[in-house]
Amino acid sequence: MTITSALSNAMTGLRAAGRNSETISANIANAMTPGYGVRSVDLSSSQIGGVKIDGISRNVNPALLVDRGLAEAAFNNASDRTQFLTNYEDFLGIPDDPDSLSARIAQFESDLVTAASRPDAPERLDATVNAARDLATLISSASRDIQEARSEADRSIDFQIKQLNTALTSVQEINRQITKTMALGGDTSALQDNRQALVDEISGIVPVRQIARENGQIALYSTGGAILLDGGVAEIEFSPVNQVTPYMTLAGGQLSGLTVDGYPVQTSSGRGALGGGSLGAQFEIRDELGVEAQTQLDALARDLIERFQDPAVDPTLAPGDPGIFTDTGIAFDPLNEVGISERLTINAAIDDRQGGESWRLRDGLNAVAPGDVGDSRLLQALSGALTAQRVPASGDFGTGAFSMINLASTLTSQLGADRAQAEQTQTFTSTQFKELTQLVLAEGVDTDQELQKLLLVEQTYAANARMIQAADEMMQTILRI
């Protein structure tokens, strides 16, 4: 080996060591950066001697990244569904809660019994009216809570669609940059990191599968079969509303669905083209869970109204007159059941806040003057109507007959079972997502290993530097001769 070839070999070794040092430093600095792929320098022997830098490799496991994305989508979906059911259950409360639906029905029932035992006591009649008002207020507030959750879901859908469209456009642009950079022989690792971070963002909204295309590009397909990105970007459109009401449904045309490239797509939880992630969960809350909750609550409110809107219970009522509980002051119309829980109020005839008198509970809602203060027959009839076994005229409660408090217990039990099942699903998806995340991190940057590599690079650098020094000493010796 000549002095010149030795010097040349040492110089290529120094360049390789420097490039290795830069790559290792970048790995350590980005150990916690989302989407970052571990880099390594590809080296080979040069035909003219020394070492040649072939390029930079980005080491990732594409299949594992896709599985992690799908797990994140499932976790987001389960979390949003569980949150809605938990919030609704908390609002209705559990039976042991003194402010729960069951407790307020029990309190109303108890106050009716107490008033019947002393029909001459105004304070007992007042307490019964207050209990009826509290019950109506809770049911009405629960209905508004459902509609607010549906409205929030509609706003969230709009936000996520905008976020999804922006991310897809960004991935398309990075695809182009990667192809251009590869054609120029440049390193595309940083671009691929940015693209992976965007794909992870998309996966949280809509579960997607990533397919490699030519020239370093990728295509994205939702697990529901929608083409989101394959050369061109899908145009996803949605029209939000300001406020969702009980009358507004997707099936009725009052709420917007989704279109992809101008074509409407399914958004149901069973077969939604973009379902399975946080976007699908918001559609399920708005169009399925919220609608079902409203339907069940309306059925309970209807049953409560009809128990007292009967001349057989209160002889002072004529057919079509409202009872203790009303539809914003008027009698309940079975053809106008949707949203009745939100419109539920107590009759103004007994409500002192509306100019009424509580003695009408004892003497009849349409009584014009107080009657016998010792007559408890109507109060007993009202108590009996509340505890009577009736088959609900609507709702999904089965075919059995229920007292009012049993009907409420059935409603909260159904809700509790749905919430428990949702929590179980959330726990499973959370565990799966965490495990896959750990696997991805395990294949990421190992700082201990990178530091060991850095020590080897330092030794390599020192050896090549010593070679250059030795060549210099030999040249100096030759020149002195």
Automatic annotation (TrEMBL):
Keywords: Bacterial flagellum, Cell projection, Cilium, Flagellum, Secreted. InterPro entries: Flag_bb_rod_N (IPR001444), Flg_bb/hook_C_dom (IPR010930), FlgK (IPR002371), FlgK_helical (IPR053927). Residues 97-308 form the Flagellar hook-associated protein FlgK helical domain. PANTHER family: FLAGELLAR HOOK-ASSOCIATED PROTEIN 1. It is found in: Bacterial flagellum basal body; Secreted. The keyword Coiled coil does not apply. Coiled coil: none annotated. Its main location: other. This is Flagellar hook-associated protein 1. Residues 444-481 form the Flagellar basal-body/hook protein C-terminal domain. The gene is flgK. Pfam families: Flg_bb_rod, Flg_bbr_C, FlgK_D1. The keyword Acyltransferase does not apply. It comes from Roseobacter sinensis. Residues 7-36 form the Flagellar basal body rod protein N-terminal domain. Belongs to the flagella basal body rod proteins family.
